[in-house]
Specification:
This protein is an alpha/beta fold and 395 residues long. The chain has two domains: 83 residues; 215 residues, Glycoside hydrolase/deacetylase (TIM Barrel, Alpha-Beta Barrel), CATH 3.20.20.370. The chain is built from 13 helices and eight strands. Strands 1, 2, 3, 6, 7 and 8 form a six-stranded parallel β-sheet that branches. A two-stranded parallel ribbon has the order 4-5. Strand 6, helix 12 and strand 7 form a beta-alpha-beta unit. 36% of the residues are buried. About 25% of the residues have low confidence. Bound molecules: zinc ion.
């Protein structure tokens, strides 16, 4: 019985134990059942957090970039205001500077980086002014001329065609801007000051300054319709300067429309100069220079052949003030540019400057330029038959 009791009690205990275990197991199951959704919930929370972060980062970046763009836009406006030009001009200027960098790679071997850019701009300078001038001539109202120099929506495409790149990448016909590694200041070198695109409202002032200093220069003129400008052609000649041809219309589409158009244009400006001054002009400067690549419809070599046939000598340049390239340059900066090239050229210098509506800084710089050139021993001369031509492209 005792054993039986014991056994019973053991059974009881076992039953109790089993019951406890069952309860525990149940509790555990219940616990596990609770935990599963909790796990699911926490996974979901993680996923949502992850998605939020993934959305928030790009969003924050977008907002940041937008703010940067706005701030840069504002800066561009302020720069345009400060320069007194339109937004297009500022962006175009940047574009040109960027695109010309590559073409100056060859030069960088012997030019400082700052000058490499400037040197490249020399060619662009003429091209720029040409485009501006074309625009001016397309606008008959005199009041529009001012704005023609700044509101230039269409010059971007023209500038892409600037002649500098080809001239340098081909490394042909443009040795004139290849400068000595160390500038030398050799006394006795000759400097030929040349003024393109005139006559203009500033020609008389330029002539006055030249006269006061007893300096003779060269004016590559175009045909101007304004009666008040007509007497300036004669005054250029009467004052002893050289009058050269720079095309009749100065409009690329017309001048370079075809070989016969070019020949007619040369004849027209030649005959016009002959009519108003009596001079048989024999020096020529191509609009855009001989290295321009805006003259797609006519071969440069054919134009050169024609000029040679007529006994006309064309002159490009190997120094420039960059007055047409950047009208915000101060007179001192213009002269620094000229002097850099003049001092760097191993030989004589033909300096490109402009005589057009917006050339006040050029006029303001002239006296100081003459003083500097004279004080350094340079001889300032007009182009004559004895002048060695500077030509970017030759046959
Ligand atoms: Zn010109």
């Amino acid at each position: 019985m005792k054993n039986e009791k014991k056994t019973l009690s053991e059974y009881e205990q076992e039953l109790l134990q089993a019951e406890r275990e069952a309860k525990e197991a149940e509790a555990k199951d219940a616990d596990n059942r609770d935990k599963a959704p909790r796990k699911k919930k926490s996974h979901r929370r993680l996923l949502i957090t992850f998605l939020l972060v993934m959305c928030a980062i790009p969003l924050a970046l977008c907002i940041y970039l937008l703010m940067r763009v706005n701030s840069m836009d504002g800066r561009l406006d302020r720069i345009a205001d400060a320069l007194g030009v339109s937004r297009n001009d500022v962006t175009e200027y940047r574009y040109r500077t960027e695109t010309t960098d590559a073409s100056t790679a060859d030069q960088s071997a012997y030019l400082t980086p700052e000058i490499a850019t400037s040197a490249d701009i020399v060619f662009l300078a003429e091209n720029y002014s040409e485009n501006e001038l074309e625009k001016e001539q397309n606008e008959n109202a005199p009041d529009d001329i001012d704005s023609a120099y700044v509101d230039s929506d269409d010059i971007g495409s023209d500038r892409e065609e600037a002649p500098a790149d080809d001239a340098y990448s081909d490394n042909e016909g443009a040795p004139e801007l290849v400068v000595a590694e160390k500038p030398t200041r050799l006394n006795g070198k000759k400097v030929y000051l040349t003024f393109d695109d005139g006559p203009s409202e500033h020609t008389a002032e330029i002539l006055d300054i030249l006269k006061k200093n007893n300096v003779k220069a060269t004016f590559f003129v175009i045909h101007r319709d304004e009666p008040e400008l007509e007497q300036l052609y004669s005054r250029i000649v009467d004052d002893g300067h050289t009058i050269g041809m720079h095309s009749y219309t100065h409009e690329y589409e017309k001048v370079y429309a075809s070989e016969s158009a070019f020949e007619k244009d040369v004849k027209d400006i030649h005959d016009f100069i002959k009519k108003v001054t009596g001079v048989d002009a024999k020096f020529y400067r191509f609009p855009g220079g001989s290295s321009n690549d805006v003259s797609d419809n006519v071969q440069t070599s054919d134009m050169i052949d024609y000029l040679n046939e007529k006994g006309i000598v064309y002159f490009d340049w190997n120094a420039a003030s960059l007055d047409a390239e950047d009208e915000s340059l101060t007179p001192a900066q213009l002269n620094e540019n000229v002097m850099y090239y003049v001092e760097s050229n191993p030989g004589d210098s033909v300096v490109l400057m402009h005589d057009f509506k917006n050339c006040e800084p050029t006029v303001a710089a002239l006296q100081s330029l003459i003083d500097t050139l004279k004080s350094e021993g340079y001889e300032i001369l007009p182009i004559t038959d004895d002048t060695e031509p500077v030509q970017h492209v030759t046959n």
